[in-house]
Amino acid sequence: MAAANISFVKRDDGVYQLNAVGYGCPHVQIYTEKALKKLSSGEELEIIFDNPSSGSSIAFICKVEGHALTEDKNDAGTFTWRIRKA
């Protein structure tokens, strides 16, 4: 299996993507928090990950920080979630 590579890129105006496929807890949570700090209020972060337990951590971040979880897809074990920063 190839080593995982984290990526954080701007996809569109006000929309960023964090690809954390191949990473487990707590890495996905840590990278999500770091990415959200780079965003302005109202901008969106799309997170792609494949560790199911990371979803709980991401949902907790949203609840505590007041961010809106606007999308949560599961496609055969690869999760794509979208967060709008508070």
From TrEMBL:
Pfam families: TusA. Residues 17-85 form the UPF0033 domain. InterPro entries: TusA-like (IPR001455), TusA-like_sf (IPR036868). Belongs to the sulfur carrier protein TusA family. This is SirA family protein. The lineage of its organism: Bacteria, Pseudomonadati, Pseudomonadota, Gammaproteobacteria, Nevskiales.
